Amino acid sequence: MRQVNVGVLGFGTVGTGVVRILLENKTILRARVGVDLNLKYVADIDTQTNRGIALEPGVLVNDAFRVVNDPDVDIVVEMIGGEGIAKELILKAIENGKHVVTANKALIAGHGNTIARAAAEKGVDFGYEASVGGCMPVIKSVRESLVGNRIHAMIGILNGTCNYILTRITEAGSSFSEALAEAQAEGFAEADPTLDVEGFDTAHKLAILNALAYGMEINLDDIYVEGISKIDPVDIAFAREFGYKVKLLAIGKNNGGSVEARVHPTMIPFADPLSSVSGSLNAVSITADAVSRVMLYGRGAGMMPTGSAVVSDIVDIARNLITGTTGRIPIFSYQPEAIRKIPILPVDEIHTHYYFRFAALDRPGVLSKISGILGENGISIRSVHQKGRKSEGTVPIVMLTHRAREADVKKALGEITLLDIVSDQPVLIRIEDENGGD
Amino acid sequence: MRQVNVGVLGFGTVGTGVVRILLENKTILRARVGVDLNLKYVADIDTQTNRGIALEPGVLVNDAFRVVNDPDVDIVVEMIGGEGIAKELILKAIENGKHVVTANKALIAGHGNTIARAAAEKGVDFGYEASVGGCMPVIKSVRESLVGNRIHAMIGILNGTCNYILTRITEAGSSFSEALAEAQAEGFAEADPTLDVEGFDTAHKLAILNALAYGMEINLDDIYVEGISKIDPVDIAFAREFGYKVKLLAIGKNNGGSVEARVHPTMIPFADPLSSVSGSLNAVSITADAVSRVMLYGRGAGMMPTGSAVVSDIVDIARNLITGTTGRIPIFSYQPEAIRKIPILPVDEIHTHYYFRFAALDRPGVLSKISGILGENGISIRSVHQKGRKSEGTVPIVMLTHRAREADVKKALGEITLLDIVSDQPVLIRIEDENGGD
Question: Of all residues in chain B, what percent carry a pLDDT higher than 90?
């Protein structure tokens, strides 16, 4: 074999990154891989825009189906995104016996089980390293480097938009909407940021990681998702006083018979290396029996970092082609027959630490009533802070709890809300702190 | 293929970790790999010590050659260490057509070129993920995840003993010898710590990483190595005042026609995530054209973390065996014919930032003389700090420089040492600070 023919579908941001790496680093890729990765096609409906890249004549085409149907194409790289035409093209490519690489987390989180089955039946490889964590080798680490480990927990900062916004609120005291506008101006947030700021993008990634780590069928629907759009800077400021930063975390834990899968703003201690991951950077911390803890850190998005992950998949498949192999590693880390439906623990059943903020009337006995209700519901208070900052006749009472059950917490907060001494809904932020006591 | 037969040579710390993972996580390994990784032999001259592991009868043997000569053994795992019998056994195993896994960085740094040639000739795989960074997937990241990248620089904290000692000096104000004694008591340092504290272990790892990243023959001899045994706590305290921590860093940079390869105590800014890697933890930061920067973080040594990396190699090879493949990835990342002898830049030729401390007599004109000599040698001073802390009639003068050439620095310090206003040798610590100016 002298060369491997690659067809890229979608000449947008990440597609352009992949094309640039294949062309600009052609020599170093050949020195490492031993064959040429030949860019045979780039397909996009927009063939006019100048992307600053000189393609050979005939490479740029406007019909993606021409690529997936060309017998000379070995690897199809889907960079279109979304669950419509991208899915159709991927399934067609697989049907035609082509290996597929994608960064499409929404598609995998929604239809990964179907795609994996189709790929396994056809005996083709399916790479998706770029779907989680951009250039951080998260998928490879879970599927390969940690293969001998029983994974206990994964905690990730997996959305650069949210991390940028939370960093700005923390460091510059911006409001959510100011920080969002900045993120949009800097190119770190889309015009419609819903998918990112409401946590759905992070949930897609967590659905994939949980499947890989725990051998479960991909389950997006049961993940608990809470975004950052309701974050009040005052809580980020209080968090800092207690030694915590607020991050949007993807939390995937293995409880034995069930799995925790949740995405929400979370307080983490300064001492945790995740707390210093700032701006648009991503990181993931994996706790497992043999390694204790390993952490990856890098750019989770962007043309070249995501392109780098896509190219690593292209090379993995090229190496299989060169050595006449496919299916070396099961697509979702476990042998298909070993994959089970593992239930996700309802969020009401989780046990964790909590931060509460109540807007309480400045009257005697308020604290006693609130703590009484918490106590009746089995919630043990770690510390109470009555802040002198009056606002519209109320004072904030901030509490940190020991480990408590979420259902009990919600019941207690419901009862407290009914008290005539508390105005507004209480604020609840979960805390991820190994040293937070039991 | 129903099972892959593994023979472990050496039942010490890491060998025990490998055996424990293979036995304790047998079920999860089978679910992921699809076949059994059968522990056929563990060889050690000490067959009496109880390591708390129940081996099947006949598994524990005292003759390692019996393992490498047994036709049933598919993968030989060398966990003996050192360059004597370990090398002989590895070469014999390769000669017998067996795939080999090792964690032996001294052996690879010293004889890697020979071993790789033998393995390539015999068409067997050679895994050594555990030789650098313990459970951090450094080798896999460089060889596979970053395959599309031109790597510019690697900066690593690759020795847990040194990092533990420097952390204790920084946090507890211990002297080097106190911190070393603590490290020994905690099991983080050997009885003879020379290999670790003098930087040689780190140099072995850097020799391997440079080869993988830059496509050069392994070259241990030309790496500049300076350990931490002469570190004075006073310089760590001063560093903190300037916003720096002192770490023993492995620095491998690609300058185009030459490569920088050096191991020495280094000041790095607090803002650099490497600065917060404390205790016995390891981390490596890789800068490359597509990813910008990616960082790995985890335990660089120890029974189970290192065992985890060894098992990931065993599985990689098992997957090759199952799918009938070998040589999928070139042993040292580049195709053998693409590997060149790239010269390592002599340390005198590097340009970096410096920290100096002079013990100066408390007389007028001292600063002017010192800075005059620096200026004559083309060294530009970023800041000067005259500390009021007299000691035996001298005051410390601390200086930070802009980027300077090491040969000029040494010449200037030599001239300054000859001044009768300076007692003792000046202290020189290199600074790795992207924002340190030109």
Answer: 92
Q: Does A275 touch chain B (CB under 8 A)?
A: no
Place of tokens 């189906």: A65
CATH assignment at residue A35: 3.40.50.720
Name the residue range of residue B382's domain.
347-431
Report how far residue A406's alpha carbon sits from residue A399's, in angstroms, rounded to the nearest whole number: 15
Q: Identify whether residues A144 and A290 lie together within a single domain.
A: yes
A360 min Cα distance to partner chain B (Å): 39
What is the tally of structural domains in chain B? 3
CB contact under 8 A, A147 and B311: yes
CATH of the domain at B376: 3.30.70.260
Cβ-based neighbours of A27, under 8 Å, separated by 6 or more: none
| Rounded to 5°, angle at Cα A375 from A371 and A377 | 120
Set A40, A140, A205, A253: catalytic member: A205
Of A272, A299, A326, the residue at which a domain comes to its end is A299
Whether residues B114 and B240 share a domain: the answer is: no
| Domain termination residue (choose one: A241, A271, A299) | A299
Q: Report CA-CA distances (Å) from B150 to A354, A364, B292.
A: 45, 66, 10
Residue B205 is a catalytic residue: yes
Residue-wise pLDDT tens for chain A (438 aa)? 689 999 999 999 999 999 999 999 999 999 999 999 999 999 999 999 999 999 999 999 999 999 999 999 999 999 999 999 999 999 999 999 999 999 999 999 999 999 999 999 999 999 999 999 999 999 999 999 999 999 999 999 999 999 999 999 999 999 999 999 999 999 899 999 999 999 999 999 999 999 999 999 999 999 999 999 999 999 999 999 999 999 999 999 999 899 999 999 999 999 899 999 999 999 999 999 999 999 999 999 999 999 999 999 999 999 999 999 999 999 999 999 999 999 999 999 999 999 999 999 888 889 999 999 999 999 999 999 987 666 667 899 999 999 999 999 999 999 999 998 898 899 999 999 987 767
The residue type of B302 is: G
Using alpha carbons, select from B274, B246, B153, B140 the residue that is nearest to residue B206: B153
Identity of the residue numbered A210 = N
Which entry of B40, B105, B140, B205 is annotated as an active-site residue? B205
Model pLDDT, residue A438 = 73
Domain contains B36: yes
What ipTM describes this predicted complex?
0.96
pTM of the model: 0.96
Residue B298 phi/psi, 5-degree rounding, is 175, -170
Whether residue B106 sits in one domain with residue B149: no
CA distance B314 to A147: 10
Task: Determine, for residues A298 and B311 on separate chains, whether the beta-carbon distance falls below 8 Å.
Answer: no
Which DSSP state fits A271? Answer: T
Distance in angstroms (rounded) separating the CA atoms of residues A335 and B33: 7
Mark whether B184 and B252 lie in a shared domain: yes
Q: How many CB atoms lie within 10 A of CB B2?
A: 7
Tell whether A184 and A102 lie within a shared domain: no
A291 touches chain B (CB under 8 A): yes
Cα–Cα distance measured from residue A47 to residue B273, given in angstroms and rounded to the nearest whole number: 42
Nearest to B291 among A31, A135, A294 (CB): A135
Bridge partner list, A297: A283, B295
Closest CB to A145: pick one of B34, B137, B297: B137
In this structure, the answer to whether residues A194 and A163 fall within a common structural domain is yes
In a domain, B437, yes or no: no
A231 plus A314 within the same structural domain: no
Cα distances from A394 to residues A360, A363, A390, B420, in angstroms, run 5, 9, 6, 70
Render pLDDT for A308-356 as a digit per residue (tens, 0 to 9). 999 999 999 999 999 999 999 999 999 999 999 999 999 999 999 999 9
One-letter identity of residue A2: R
The answer to whether residues B43 and B146 belong to one domain is no
- Residue A41 inside a domain? The answer is yes
Q: Domain for residue B438, yes or no?
A: no
